[in-house]
Amino acid sequence: MNIGFIGLGAMGLPMAKRVVAAGYQVFTCCHRNRAPAEELASLGARILAAPAEVARRSEAVVTILPADAELKETVFRSGGLREGFSAGKVLVEMTTGTAFAVREVEAALAKTGGRLLDAPVSGGTPAAANGTLTIMAGGDAGLLEEVRPLLETMGKNILHVGAVGQGKVVKIVNQALAAIHLLAMSEAFALGVKSGADPGVLYDVIKSSSGYSKMMDLRLPGFLFENSFRPGFRLDLMKKDLNLAVDSAQALGLPMAFTALAAQVFAAASISGRGDEDFAAAAGFLAGLAGATLEPRK
User: Fold this and answer.
1) Range of the domain at 48
2) Are residues 217 and 267 in the same domain?
3) Which of 42, 102, 132, 255 is placed for a possible disulfide with 156 were both Cys, Cβ 3.0 to 4.6 Å?
4) Domain count across the chain
5) pTM, 2 dp
6) Alpha carbon distance 32, 52 (integer Å)
7) Which of 143, 164, 185 is the endpoint of a domain?
8) For 89-105, how does the pLDDT look when each residue is reduced to its tens digit (9 = 90+)?
9) Tell me, what CATH number does 224's domain have?
10) 156 lies in some domain
11) How far apart are alpha carbons 293 and 124 in whole angstroms?
12) Residue 296 domain flag
């Protein structure tokens, strides 16, 4: 089975490497940065000129792009995926975007006889490299089973969450919670630090108490405790995801007070120059407003 893979960023490249390693013939193309495509080609993938060519050579195409705008450009522009789609081809769309955009893409590809599975992921770059991502699949259940072997090269937890668009909805909900948990942890830990508590002691106690969140395990050791923010998932990408949640809520006429506040903190952290750091830097930024750092005492 030939697989197209478009979007070789921090998540996409390690995912594509796993697809190549599983023995699939992979086709890709370049956008602005050719280096990731060349790295993938060194492992056996082939670089083609445009998304349309990738689609023509592939039975299934995976896309994992920064946002809706890049997805629409990849599909609808001259030389885009739509031009290369035909009956039976499948788009596995893994971008964190809105349900509105992926449904628009599905409708366009359906006119060619193509099918779409809405399948964003969670787990960050370590899980992408290890093939242990959670994949939230929206679309036809039969199509999910058809492409499950491909998805299993990239993910460990593959869950059917409903119709096309519901994958995006579930992912946005997850991102909103992750950001809120991160900032709530930072604010509360800053209170503890300014009151004389050791962040390491707080972690040891709270991880077995009712205030625990998995975000403590994911972003205290290795990030906030070391004051190190090498990106696993960039702050600006989480900022984008929070804005997707806020925009989606506004379209539905729903209040999202905590998510909107989190989006403002992430925007402020980004403006301060931390957008290319790991999203944990937003917690460091917030703690810094209180004059605190979260490094445990030696």
Assistant:
1) 2-164
2) yes
3) 132
4) 2
5) 0.91
6) 17
7) 164
8) 999 999 999 999 999 99
9) 1.10.1040.10
10) yes
11) 24
12) no
User: What DSSP character marks residue 10?
Assistant: T
Where would I find the beta strands (DSSP E) of the chain?
Answer: 2-6, 25-29, 46-48, 60-63, 90-93, 115-118, 121-122, 133-138, 155-162
- Report the alpha-carbon distance of residue 70 to residue 58 in Å, rounded: 20
Q: Structure tokens of 217? A: 């395990």
Active-site residue, 171 included: yes
Mean pLDDT of 167-184: 97
Residue 284: both structure tokens together: 């460091």
pLDDT digits (tens, 9 = 90+) for 258-294: 999 999 999 999 999 999 999 999 999 999 999 999 9
pLDDT surpasses 80 at 298? no
Q: Is residue 191 located within the same domain as residue 264? A: yes
Residue 298 lies in a domain: no
Are the C-beta atoms of residues 105 and 72 closer than 8 Å to each other? Answer: yes
Nearest to 155, CA basis, from 127, 117, 174, 178: 127
What is the DSSP pairing of strand 46-48 with strand 115-118? unpaired
Domain boundary among 106, 138, 164: 164
Mapped onto helix, strand or coil, the DSSP state of residue 213 is coil
Q: Compute CA 120 distance to the chain's CA centroid, rounded to the nearest angstrom.
A: 7
Spatial CB neighbours of 78, under 8 Å, sequence gap ≥ 6:
none
Which candidate in 168, 171, 239, 240 is catalytic? 171
* Helix, strand or coil, per DSSP, at residue 208: coil
Task: Kindly state whether residue 294 falls inside one of the protein's structural domains.
Answer: no
Are residue 261 and residue 175 in the same domain, yes or no?
yes
